[in-house]
């Protein structure tokens, strides 16, 4: 009986003992704070960026028109030359002899023509009086015409000999910077239209071209802009461009478009473009790497900080915050950097609130406490 009473007492005391050890429930933690802002809406002048290299407007491989021995080289390797400057001299003596011989042939042909002309003049009255047969008179006129033809042929050979003599002086066909010489004085070279020996190469320096490839997407966008009148085609208008070199941070070299190819490269899906730049100081050199900005038109755009854009493999996303504080994502298409901000071509609405600070600790589906921020553009 005593044991039963004791057991019942313990059962009655158990809730009291348990209540003494229990603690109050913890208060749930507040959602983390995130700085959010709506995209900046601004009318911008868009510049699309492309990578390319400079190339000479003219590249001429210098070859001689006549064969012979090189007597001398008249220019230093690597120097600037003007069109018409003397570069190489070929031994002139054989060609001078050919000129003298051709000149003698001209004199001989003139003498024959003079005799033939006198014969015709003397035969004319005899033919009228029928003292000379008509056949004989026609023969003398034929001899005169043959002599005139021989004189014309000799005169042409004389001019060709003079031209060959002139070609013994190899002159610069264009202005620019000369390369190293490929043949030293004393060597025999071949000249002519085929198989001629290369002597050197000249590349023009001012102006200079910049060659680059644009994507099919960009080219299609330019065509649609031109169709609506928002931006003229670079085929019709020399749209402005600017370039910075590999060691530069600013686009200081100003130029203009002057060519767009007529078809896309089916292997790369790109189209070739070309710009032209003045190069008075000779700084821009063929082969230099550069980064080009091409005028892409003026339009209203949405701008966000570049740090707000997150890469998800090949995709680009931004984090958005709903009215209830839930974090979501939006897939966006990016444009260039303008005013220090990233242009969003598509995927974002002007009313969206995006996370601009604390992106690294943000993940979709979480609850946050949004704090209003502001997106500001840098100076142009």
Q: What's the mean pLDDT score?
A: 87
Sequence of strands across the biggest β-sheet? 2-11-14-13-12-15
Shape: elongated
* Proportion in β-strands: 35-45%
Uncertain segments are 1-5
In DSSP terms (H or I, runs of 4 or more residues), the helix count works out at: 4
Output the structural class. Answer: alpha+beta
Quaternary state of this entry equals: single chain
Largest sheet: 6 strands, antiparallel, barrel
Can you walk through the features of this model?
It contains four helices and 22 strands. Strand 16 and strand 17 form a beta hairpin. The protein is an alpha+beta fold and 380 residues long. The strands form five sheets. It has a six-stranded antiparallel beta barrel. A four-stranded antiparallel beta sheet has the order 3-10-8-5, with no helix packed on it.
Quick description:
By secondary structure, the protein is of the alpha+beta class. It is 27% helix and 36% strand.
List keywords for this structure.
four-stranded antiparallel beta sheet, 4 domains, six-stranded antiparallel β-barrel, conserved putative lor/sdh protein from methanococcus maripaludis s2 fold, Elongation Factor Tu (Ef-tu), domain 3, OB fold (Dihydrolipoamide Acetyltransferase, E2P), 380 residues, 4 helices, single chain, disordered N terminus, alpha+beta
């Amino acid at each position: 009986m005593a044991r039963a009473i004791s057991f019942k007492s313990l059962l009655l005391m158990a809730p009291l003992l348990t209540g003494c050890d229990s603690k109050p429930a913890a208060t749930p933690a507040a959602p983390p704070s995130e700085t959010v802002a709506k995209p900046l809406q601004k009318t911008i002048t868009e510049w699309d960026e492309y990578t390319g290299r400079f190339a000479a407007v003219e590249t001429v491989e210098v070859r001689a028109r006549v064969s012979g021995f090189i007597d001398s080289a008249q220019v230093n390797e690597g120097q600037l030359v003007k069109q018409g400057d003397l570069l190489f001299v070929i031994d002139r003596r054989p060609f001078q002899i050919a000129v003298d011989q051709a000149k003698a042939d001209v004199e001989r042909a003139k003498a024959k023509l003079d005799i033939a002309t006198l014969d015709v003049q003397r035969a004319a009255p005899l033919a009228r009086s029928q003292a000379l047969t008509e056949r004989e008179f026609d023969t003398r006129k034929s001899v005169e015409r043959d002599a005139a033809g021989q004189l014309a042929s000799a005169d042409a050979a004389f001019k060709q000999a003079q031209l060959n003599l002139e070609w013994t002086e190899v002159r610069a066909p264009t202005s620019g910077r000369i390369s190293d010489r490929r043949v030293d004085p004393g060597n025999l070279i071949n000249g002519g239209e085929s198989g001629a020996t290369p002597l050197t190469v000249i590349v023009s320096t001012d102006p200079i071209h910049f060659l680059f490839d644009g994507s099919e997407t960009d080219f299609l966008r330019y065509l649609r802009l031109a169709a609506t009148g928002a931006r003229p085609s670079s085929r019709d208008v020399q749209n402005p461009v600017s370039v910075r070199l590999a060691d530069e941070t600013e686009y200081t070299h100003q130029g203009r478009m002057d060519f767009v190819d007529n078809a896309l490269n089916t292997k790369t899906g790109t189209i070739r473009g070309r710009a032209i730049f003045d190069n008075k100081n000779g700084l821009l050199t063929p082969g230099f790497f550069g980064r080009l900005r091409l005028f892409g038109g003026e339009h209203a755009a949405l701008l966000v900080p570049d740090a707000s854009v997150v890469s998800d493999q090949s995709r680009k996303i931004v984090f958005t915050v709903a009215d209830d504080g839930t974090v979501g994502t939006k897939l966006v298409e990016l444009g260039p950097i303008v005013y220090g901000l990233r242009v969003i071509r598509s995927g974002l609405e002007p009313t969206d609130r995006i996370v601009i600070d604390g992106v690294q600790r943000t993940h979709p589906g979480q609850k946050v406490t949004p704090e209003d921020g502001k997106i500001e553009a840098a100076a142009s």
